[in-house]
Write a structure and sequence with these properties.
heterodimer, A: 342 residues, alpha/beta, FAD/NAD(P)-binding domain, five-stranded parallel beta sheet, B: 351 residues, Glutathione S-transferase Yfyf (Class Pi), Chain A, domain 2, Rossmann fold, 2 domains, 16 helices, 8 strands, 44% helix
């Protein structure tokens, strides 16, 4: 039986493991954290259908029980090398593992908002990230810095994405719709709250996204302001003063808000960057480089070494899952070819 | 304070052997500040700093108001560098923040466009047969004081502490726009959380006030003041800052820019006259110091020799808080010993 190693137990890693195991491949799934699906576990609901993230996580976790999958948690794979007849994986403690093929599914991490210090994250209590807001929504407790119900919440798009200063020129793709989703959630929890979203341009690319954007405005009264926030500062009473420009009105704008929510972008995870470098498959911004985004988007150019999910670029859960299925098919073709050789 | 950010944004500041370039306006606005800086470097820190009597304008105000063309500014800057070169110095320390911005900008342009540097060398030689080297290090004097803030602290008999309450003084620090907003990496702490003055305040016992309009322009803004019709913009910007800092009840403001110190101080009188209001509880206004005056006071220099009597908002109440002795009778004594007539008292700003 052929052996496949999958690095990363996120949606892509688990989906690929499940597909491969069902086809009779022996899969070992390595995960750096002590539990799988960490990025999904951080969410409350997923767009566009507001399905509980926990349901999706439970569904994916169930797939780990498929016969033929061995999950090894808390193991950080830091290098993968071709040894002539098989791939050898090295963990951070120096232990080694072998496989006929390897799938890198090491995923993403969110941008560290501390790096945009002009926006005051980590300095002013009223400045939080979209991850913090997701946590508040998850626990149905949306409060300002003083623990009170906020009267005004302001979202800012593109924090750490499309931003030369932070070195990330790319679009993180999911923040626009996430802000719309969170703005609606806030209005559901606190109907009287004045909610604004500051954006460069709203990229409602997915099915149902545009409708969500309309609903946010028409049903929930969310304000969308085209402009970047240049500076955030705490006021004497612990709120946050914002300076921006409304580029549609052509006017400078100053306002005070209870919470400023920074929509943090997606970056290649540390594991992605480390493996990308070690295996010489690192592309732009530390994401994994594939042979071609059109036809060979799971091939790294190294026979037997594949990539799937948001270790390649920002992806939604469903993009990652679909991509993982494609990767599983490519891996099956590869291991079949090995059988024929033997 | 966001200490962990400024820690990442340090700049190289030379340790010794400085060529000092004086400001066109500082000796009028703050007559004791430059002398105090030289005294601190020479007497407190035992450093070598050269002060050439042949120096001249950097053209900064003319350059930023489009009166002086770029080519002229480059040649004038080159002549100043030629004085530094002639005396064998490599570390340039311009007193004025505008000059600091001009020198940094010219060096940057010359680095990006070497043909402009060649042309400037040619122009300078044609004009006055002089040649120059580029400085190895350009640091503003506030950088230098920041660099030696801990050494100076050991020599200071006074701290930024209210002797009546034992609490740290609340200090508003204001950085000149041309210090770090043009080239953020040339300022300690960069533009968002500048630390050059905050570092001094913290090292000398005070607390920095982080107020909403901390990064806002002081109101000078060159054209806002220099074109008479625009002066309303200048006053309203200063007013915006003063209103923003007022709830924090700062004990004083410190700045590293001549324009900022000037306008944050003088416009308090103007606003008091226009609107009958001041930004402290008692009606005396918020004192504004230069960083040299702040350092000099803590080192025990005579407040009148530092030139505090020239300020619009009077500083005696601040001196009392820190516990610095002063002789009121000597306040208006000229260098020749004559006691000058005291200025008229304003109607609305208490002195």
């Amino acid at each position: 039986m052929k052996k496949v190693a999958i690095i990363g137990a996120g949606p892509a890693g688990i989906e690929a493991a499940s597909v491969l195991a069902k086809q009779g491949v022996q899969v070992t799934l390595f995960e750096k954290s002590e539990s799988p699906l960490k990025n999904i576990q951080d969410k409350a609901f997923l767009f566009p259908n507001f399905q509980a993230a926990q349901e999706i996580a439970d569904d994916l976790s169930g797939k780990l029980l498929t016969d033929g999958i061995t999950s090894i948690l808390g193991i950080d794979i830091v290098d993968v090398k071709w040894q002539g007849t098989e791939w050898k994986l090295f963990d951070a403690k120096g232990q080694t593992y072998v496989a006929d093929a390897v799938l890198v599914a090491t995923g993403y991490q969110v941008f560290d908002a501390h790096r945009k210090e002009e926006l005051g994250y980590g300095i002013y209590k009223g400045v939080i990230t979209s991850l913090d807001m997701e946590n508040m929504i998850k626990h149905s407790k949306i409060t300002n810095a003083n623990g009170d119900v906020p009267k005004r919440i302001t979202f800012l798009q593109c924090v750490g994405s499309r931003d030369e200063k932070s070195g990330n020129n790319y679009c993180s793709k999911l923040c626009c719709v996430t802000a719309v989703k969170q703005a609606i959630e806030v209005k559901k929890h606190i109907p009287s709250c004045d909610v604004s979203v500051f954006y460069m341009d709203l990229r409602m690319w997915g099915q149902g996204f545009e409708e969500m954007y309309r609903t946010a405005q028409e049903k929930y009264g969310v304000n969308f302001v085209r402009g970047r926030i240049s500076e955030a500062a705490a006021t004497f009473d612990g709120r946050v003063q914002l300076k921006s420009e409304d580029t549609l009105m052509g006017l400078p704008l100053k306002m005070t808000t209870d919470l400023l929510v920074l929509m943090v972008g997606m970056e290649a995870s540390c594991g992605t960057k480390v493996l990308g470098k070690a295996c010489d498959i690192s592309g732009e911004y530390g994401f994994i480089k594939t042979v071609s985004p059109h036809l060979y988007d799971n091939d790294t150019g190294k026979p037997g070494l594949f990539a799937a999910g948001s270790c390649k670029r920002p992806m939604s859960v469903w993009d990652s899952v679909n991509d993982a299925r494609g990767a599983a098919l490519a891996i099956l073709e590869y291991v079949e070819s090995l059988k024929n050789e033997n | 304070m966001a200490n962990r950010f400024w820690n990442e944004y340090q700049k190289t500041i030379a340790d010794d052997h400085y060529f000092y370039e004086r400001s066109c306006i500082r000796q009028t606005f703050f007559p004791g500040s430059e002398a105090a800086f030289l005294r601190m470097l020479r007497e407190e820190l035992n450093k070598d700093i050269f002060d050439d009597f042949r120096q001249h304008t950097c053209t900064g105000i003319g350059y930023h108001t489009d009166v002086v063309p770029l080519e002229t500014t480059m040649t004038v800057v080159a002549r100043l560098f030629s004085l530094m070169t002639e005396h064998g110095y490599e570390n340039y320390v311009p007193s004025c923040v505008t000059s600091f911005g001009v020198f940094t900008e010219m060096c940057h342009m010359w680095q990006e466009h070497p043909e402009l540097l060649d042309k400037t060398r040619e122009n300078l030689y044609k004009a006055c047969k002089r040649e120059f080297n580029l400085p190895k290090n350009i640091a503003h004097p506030s950088d230098v004081i920041y660099h030696f803030r801990n050494e100076l602290a050991q020599k200071m008999p006074y701290r930024l502490v209210n002797r009546f309450t034992g609490k740290p003084l609340k200090v508003v620090e204001h950085i000149g726009c041309h210090y770090a907003k043009i080239f953020p990496d040339k300022g300690v702490g960069k533009a968002e959380f500048p630390y050059v003055l905050a570092g001094m305040i913290e090292a000398w016992g005070g607390d920095v006030v982080d107020y909403p309009e901390r990064r806002h322009c002081c109101g000078f803004g060159f054209r806002q003041y220099l074109i008479q019709e625009n002066r309303g913009y200048s006053v309203s910007n200063t007013k915006k800052k003063l209103e923003s800092m007022e709830p924090y009840e700062p004990d004083f403001i410190v700045s590293n820019c001549p324009g900022c110190s000037m306008f944050l101080d003088r416009w308090q009188y103007t606003i008091a006259e226009m609107e009958h209001r001041t930004y402290d509880r008692e009606g005396y206004g918020i004192p504004v110091l230069t960083y040299e005056e702040m350092a000099g006071l803590l080192l025990g220099y005579n407040p009148w020799e530092l030139g505090l009597q020239i300020h619009q908002v009077q500083c005696e109440r601040l001196l009392d808080k820190i516990g610095i002795p002063y002789d009121p009778k000597q306040k208006y004594r000229a260098a020749d010993g004559k006691i000058l007539r005291a200025p008229e008292k304003p109607e609305n700003l208490l002195v």
